[in-house]
Design brief:
The chain is mainly α. 50% of the residues lie in helices and 8% in strands. Strands 1-2 form a two-stranded antiparallel ribbon. α3 crosses α4.
Length: 171
Amino acid sequence: KSVAPRASRNVRRVVAGAREAGPDAATIGRAWRRDAPLVMPYPNAKVGSGMIGSAHEIALQSWQLDRFEAIRSSSAGHSVNDVVVAACGGALRSLLLESAALPHAGLKAMIPISTRTVADADGSGNAVGSITADLGTHLTDPFERLQAVHESMRSGKELFRSVGDRSAFAW
């Protein structure tokens, strides 16, 4: 049995991916130069010594959704997700301040986003991507942090939706 048809299909896929990635790379480059709140996937600030060890701690807190909704409704244009990410950034800032490990540059995080369109609304299965967003850990004011998170999330989502599927998920 010949492997030529399979190899030919694979080459066609690679060429198709390269055709899509070229314009998308230009789109990403233009967005990065134009859009200050856009967070690129790297580099990230080091926290503490930067070493990752085997000792881990976890703390959990339960909050009523109404509390996040109240903050969202008092600040025009923000989503509940923006409020949750900003709250996480604030909690992380407090934790790092306590241990004198808060870096000067704000920390970034990979944030899951829905990739469903209106046409997919009734579809089943997962439709999730991710963006890199600013957590606002460098900002002392919670409302400034919320605004920074909102702008970063908006920019990341706009870029994600402006490039092809392969480039968005390779991002």
